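Our preliminary data section would be incomplete without showing what the modeling component actually yields. Below, a chain of 189 amino acids is followed by its predicted structure, encoded as C-alpha cells that our downstream tools consume directly.
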Amino acid sequence: MTLPASLDERFRARAAADGLLDVAYDLTDSPVGPLLLAATERGVCRISFDPDAERELEALARWFGARVLRSPKPVDSLRRELDGYFEGARQDFDLPVDLTPLPAFQRLVLEELARVPYGETSTYGGLAARVGNPRAARAVGGALNRNPIPIVLPCHRVVGAGGSLVGYAGGLDRKRALLELERGELRLV
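Predicted structure:
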C-alpha cells in the first residue's frame, strides 16, 4: 500500500514535531555532490558525502536509536547554513552538533578542529599538539577520517606536514574544492 504524498509528509512532520524521532534525515544536492543530512534533538549528527541511505541509516540507528525517519524540517537549518557556506556568505556554522556516540579522544579532536579558522589550514601534527599529544598525528588522522559531520567540523582544513592534501574521507577532489572555496580561488555555484 502506498500512502498519498501529502499524508506521508504530514506523518513525517508530526513525528518530528512530537519528538518521536531519534534521528531525522534528508538528502540534498550540493556543489560537491549529494549529501545526506541528519540531526537528533541535540544537534547535527551526520553529513555524508556518500548518501547510500541503507548503510547510513543502519549506522544512525546503531548510534542513536532505531527511530530514524526521513523528515526534512528538522534539517532545514543545516541545509540553509550549508547553502550559505557554498554561496560564500557563511564562514561559520551556528548549529549545535551531537557527538555523543563518539569516543572521548575523537570528540576532543573534533572540538579542537572546530577552532581552525575559515580559509586557513592546520596539520595533523599541529592538531595533535593542540589536543595535548604532539606524537598522536596518526591517531588524529584516524579521528578525522571518521568525522561524522564534515564541512561543519572542517576536517578538510587539515593537511599533511608539508602542506600536501592527504587523507580526506570525502575524497581529495572535494577537499581541494572546499579549500579553494574558502580561499576565494573557486566559486562553487
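Helices lie at 5-17, 53-64, 76-86, 104-113, 124-130, 137-145, 172-182. The longest strand covers residues 23-28. Preliminary results of this kind motivate Aim 1 of the renewal.
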